[in-house]
């Protein structure tokens, strides 16, 4: 019997937070670093909830957990940096995924300190974005941003899947 003719696994009826986290872990998604200024200090975090929202105007949306260390700084800024990561950016992603590695972030070799927001020099694409709207969504905030500057370098993507980073291509 061909694999596609096999009976599907029995579905779980549970919607517990633990079970739903397992469902979300199996949703492959691109990863991005979102950055901002907090006074004179650059701040940022890794997000896997980013998606394109529209081309005209050029918009993204992404979600940030309210407990994230830089959530409040993001809320106070009119401009944010967004860096879509490629397969060669795994080390940078890991720096921004762990608060223990915060001291390794934003080196001048890897980051440009633009007046509006810190901008990553690597990645598949980078954008300086204006915050258009922030929507309260219980434990998270949904940021809708419009790109005002973009740069890109096509290549294979870095994705989040099953609680790990994977390289495509």
From TrEMBL:
Database matches in Pfam families: Flavin_Reduct
Domain Flavin reductase like as annotated: residue spans: 24-167
Domain of life (superkingdom): Bacteria
Oxidoreductase found in the keyword field: yes
Keyword GTP-binding appears in the UniProt entry: no
Keywords of this entry: Oxidoreductase
SUPFAM superfamilies recorded: FMN-binding split barrel
SMART domains assigned: Flavin_Reduct
Protein family (similarity comment): Belongs to the non-flavoprotein flavin reductase family.
Protein name as it appears in the record: Flavin reductase family protein
């Amino acid at each position: 019997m061909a694999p596609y003719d096999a009976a599907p696994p029995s579905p779980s009826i549970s919607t517990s937070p633990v079970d739903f986290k397992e469902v979300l872990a199996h949703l492959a998604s691109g990863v991005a670093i979102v950055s901002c200024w907090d006074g004179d200090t650059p701040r940022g975090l890794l997000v896997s909830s980013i998606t394109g929202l529209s081309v005209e105007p050029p918009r993204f949306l992404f979600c940030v957990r309210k407990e994230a260390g830089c959530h409040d700084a993001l809320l106070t800024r009119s401009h944010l940096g967004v860096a879509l990561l490629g397969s060669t950016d795994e080390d940078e992603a890991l720096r921004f995924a762990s608060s223990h590695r915060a001291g390794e972030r934003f080196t001048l070799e890897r980051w440009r300190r633009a007046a509006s927001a810190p901008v990553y020099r690597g990645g598949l694409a980078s954008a300086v974005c204006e915050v258009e709207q922030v929507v309260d969504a219980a434990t998270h905030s949904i940021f809708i941003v419009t790109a005002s500057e973009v740069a890109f370098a096509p290549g294979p993507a870095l994705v989040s899947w099953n609680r790990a980073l994977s390289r495509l291509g």
